[in-house]
Design brief:
This protein is α/β, with parallel strands linked by helices and 354 residues long. The chain has 2 domains: 112 residues, Aspartate Aminotransferase, domain 1 (Alpha-Beta Complex), CATH 3.90.1150.10; 207 residues, Type I PLP-dependent aspartate aminotransferase-like (Major domain) (Aspartate Aminotransferase, domain 2, 3-Layer(aba) Sandwich). The protein has 11 helices and 13 strands. Strand 3, helix 4 and strand 4 form a beta-alpha-beta unit. Bound molecules: 4'-deoxy-4'-aminopyridoxal-5'-phosphate (PMP). The site of 4'-deoxy-4'-aminopyridoxal-5'-phosphate has 13 residues, from helix 3.
Length: 354
């Protein structure tokens, strides 16, 4: 068949979500929560549906009530919040809002692939800036790339996916204050570390903090993400947001999740305990290098990444293989699961490493 796709997109490699046809006993490849939404939230949602979900009506396009809840959760005004169908959609909205054809976008590498993919789809040009030793952010490199390319958008990811390290507040300030464009700090994994760049918003009108309900809040399947920025900037961003982009069921689920933050907090604490257990135990296994992580996953380096990944799959454990990424030779990323999954992963790794 004739290729109808835009010429500049013919070579685009779309996001690889892995093989969903096989059933894995332990799915540790996508940094999701190991637990389904709490019973309490399920019951409240069911009650809401049974008493009339109004699903024949369009959802609230502005997510008015949810933005109020998010405002309280993040200690900002609702006017500072824009909600999307996953933070993926917010990344696309940001690129659409700020990047014209041919404009440059700075992305760290290795990092989350969607910054680059959405930039290509928009006709922008991504410039990948390698992280420094031990994956630390190198502000000098980023600032000189900004001076050279005059980008419209700079993406920073903290904790960074897939390396798990964070960027420091003073580094974000150094980049944002010297730059006449938009800086996005993606805090998809922010709940698993201390601190947030939200406190910089007052002094940085060009800063956008990106967050999601998919990780610590456990709603990956319901697709809720959001960004926080200055109210004026939020207005600009909202202009390009598709109407009704967040369905009404997901809006309700997100609100109810924020009404049950005690459970969320308990779950985050358990993930942090499990992360420490996984880190300390994996470190003891000869042949494995483990990188410290402030997220709900760990990056490990093994002698043969692809072979290890396949052997894990044979044992019903799915992790993410980064072996072919030039910066991540023989690296695998494993999501912190529940205790049982983590123990099985450790047992499998001990066996594989011989
Ligand atoms: N940012 C980062 C760093 C991620 O790792 C992910 C998901 N893997 C996302 C954004 C997108 O998440 P979602 O669309 O589910 O909010």
């Amino acid at each position: 068949m004739k290729n109808y796709l835009r010429n500049d997109l013919i070579d685009l490699v779309p996001y690889d979500e892995g093989d969903r046809t096989r059933i894995y006993k332990y799915k540790l490849d996508a940094n999701e929560s190991p637990w389904d939404i709490p019973e309490r939230v399920k019951k409240a949602l069911a009650k809401e549906i049974m008493s009339g979900g109004n699903f024949n009506r369009y959802p609230d396009s502005n997510c008015t009530l949810l933005r109020k809840y998010i405002g309280q959760y993040c200690n900002v005004f609702p006017e500072q919040v824009v909600v999307g169908s996953g933070s993926d959609e917010i990344i696309q909205i940001l690129v659409t809002a700020f990047v014209n054809k041919g404009d440059y976008v700075i992305c760290p590498t290795p990092s989350f692939g969607m910054y680059r993919i959405f930039t290509s789809i928009s006709g922008g040009k991504s410039v990948e800036i390698p992280l420094a030793k031990n994956f630390q952010y190198d502000t000098e490199n980023i600032n000189s790339a900004i001076n050279k390319h005059k980008p419209k958008l700079v993406f920073l990811c903290s904790p960074n996916n897939p390396t798990g390290n964070v960027i420091e507040v003073n580094q974000v300030l150094e980049i944002t204050k010297n730059f006449d464009g938009i800086v996005v700090v993606d805090e998809a994994y922010g709940e698993f570390t201390q601190g947030t760049m939200i406190s910089l918003l007052d002094e940085c009108p060009n800063l956008v903090v990106l967050k999601t309900f998919s990780k610590a809040l456990g709603l990956a399947g319901l697709r809720i993400g959001y960004c926080i920025c200055a109210p004026e900037l939020a207005k600009q961003i909202s202009k390009v947001k598709p109407p009704y982009n967040v369905n009404s069921f997901s809006q309700k689920a997100a609100i109810m999740t924020l009404e049950n933050q005690d459970i969320v907090k308990e779950r985050i604490s358990e993930i942090l305990r499990q992360r420490e257990f996984l880190y300390q135990t994996l470190k003891q296994i000869p042949g494995i290098d483990v990188y410290p992580s402030e997220a709900n996953f760990l990056l490990i380096r093994v002698p043969n990444g692809t072979m290890t990944w396949k052997k894990l799959m044979d044992k019903g454990i799915l992790v993410r293989n980064f072996s072919h990424n030039p910066h991540l030779e023989n690296c695998l990323r494993v999501t912190v699961g529940d205790q049982m999954a983590n123990q099985c992963f450790i047992d499998a790794m001990k066996e594989i490493m011989g």
